[in-house]
Amino acid sequence: MENSKKAFDNLFKFITFAGTITLFLTVLGIFISLVVESKQAIGSFGIIKFLTTTTWDPVKEIFGSATMLSGTVIITLIALLMAVPVAIGIAIFLVELCPDFLKGAFGTTIEMLASIPSIIYGMWGLFTVAPIMGNYIEPFLQRFFAPIPFFSILFRGTPLGIDILTASLVLSIMLIPFIASITRDTLNLTPVVLKESAYGMGATKWEVIKDIMLPHAKYGIYGSIVIAMGRALGETMAVAFVLGNNHKIPSSLLDAAATITVTLANEFTEADSDLYLSSLFYLALILFVLSFFILAIAKYILRRGSAK
Amino acid sequence: MQNNIKRRKIKNFVALSIAFLSALLGLFWLVFILFDLLREGIQYIRPELFLEDPAPPGLEGGGLRNAFVGQILIVIVAVVVGVPLGILGGTYLAEYGRNKRIAHFISTLADIMISIPAIVVGTFVYAVMVRPLGHFNGWAGGVSLAIIMLPIVVRTTEDMLKLIPDELREAAFALGAPYYKVIMQVVYRGAATGILTGVLLAIARVAGEAAPLLFTSFNNSFFTTNLNEPMPSLTVTIFQYAMGPYEDWHKIAWAASFVITFAILVVTILGRLLIKWRYRK
Fold first, then answer.
1. Which candidate, B263, B247, B257, places its Cα nearest to that of B61?
2. Per-residue model confidence as pLDDT tens digits over B103-141
3. How far apart are CA A35 and CA A31, in angstroms?
4. Its Gene Ontology molecular function terms (chain A) (predicted)?
5. How many domains does chain A have?
6. Does the distance separating the beta carbons of A92 and B19 come in below 8 Å?
7. In Å, how far is B119's CA from the nearest CA of chain A?
8. Which among A29, A89, A124 has CB closest to B22?
């Protein structure tokens, strides 16, 4: 009797352990299989050469990832630049300004932005945002920045709406809820005593936010930004619609460009030679390693924030 | 001095107004997207959309019956594969693995995996399930969604089990119950709503994924329930139709987007209400 109980318990323990280890094996499996599949491309182009070559020519079988890497980095950074201030503003509003009875509802509303599928963002971007950008906003920006030396270069070219600026804008809307909700949660953790003592000294609300709450929540904010960065690097469908998949290093915000994800989405099923396919796997490997480390860093920062 | 206070008050007003405007901007985007979906999508919501297969390119009419059925089948495969594994994995992390290094490590790994690019998962499944078999198939699509669900279910299960107070476990132990019985009859029962919600949210998360399906289940413009064949899905169909040249395709893509988005929003909101109702303080 006792023995069979023990046996069952061990069996159950083993089964649950198998569930846990599946997760680990999957991650390991992804890494190993991507390395194996990209071996041919790694052999042909090496690491440094693949990262720095700007040619992506399936006909001549010369593959380099510099155009996609630059596209990915540029779009991620611009999207973050647009999303971070808005998201922090939303978090401040939620914590300090929103009336209590609206807090839950408004918080959920912002988080709903995160549950809209990325393909919807892409389609909306293509049919709604791109025409507005191409017809109104981009020509306006061009005229506005024309007299200013540095900025006029950024807005060179024909405003078509299918470009870096539109892709970053759509992406930034997707990032807002991630940054806003983590920032809100960490702002909420500010000890009330600290806030009250600042108010007691006659500080205004903004001074309390700026000097007490934001510094207190800084790890949470950094962590959320890095998480958003990881998400932005891997975002595929939203960008695939509005970026144009152009393998050229962009010179203006109105250029079409390519990211790693968009290249994979558009070309993976078309790859007709082994080396072509292997190079695409190589891209996936780079993306996997890159986002893995970025997300691990985010995790580390967030933990540091909560350990205090 | 008086001037200084005035300046600080103005600054205060400006900064708080900016925060207020950001909130309005966030709300604006959401309303903009949802309103657009509603306006463009509602036009093509008719019975044919759900009951008919696609018309040949360029012809009017037709529906997406094949894609709806395919999407449901793929998600079912994902749930059947991903959910039990995820719940078991989360159970180990919260119960047997307590304070063990490996549990801590895998829990962190799961957190990281939640945000790993979905398209990378697609390439992986292509390498292990599509190329060896020689053709795109529905199973591969389901498995790639299951891989995306797995870390989400693991983490929510772990969190929910940890909310169950130790006293409950101890009471059951005191009655002489072995650990597996304590877990199944006490801990799971207490955490059932939470786990169910985690599963619902995980389904909502993967139901809208298109990237990993592009080269696993691929697409198919014919009706099929055979998971060994390329399987149509709503999301990949939306991608193809929206990128396609026909005006009629765009309308159908909007309608399909409308249906899928609202289904996902309803499931998400239901999940949240469930959590709120069960765990309100």
1. B247
2. 999 999 999 999 999 999 999 999 999 999 889 999 999
3. 6
4. phosphate transmembrane transporter activity
5. 1
6. yes
7. 7
8. A89
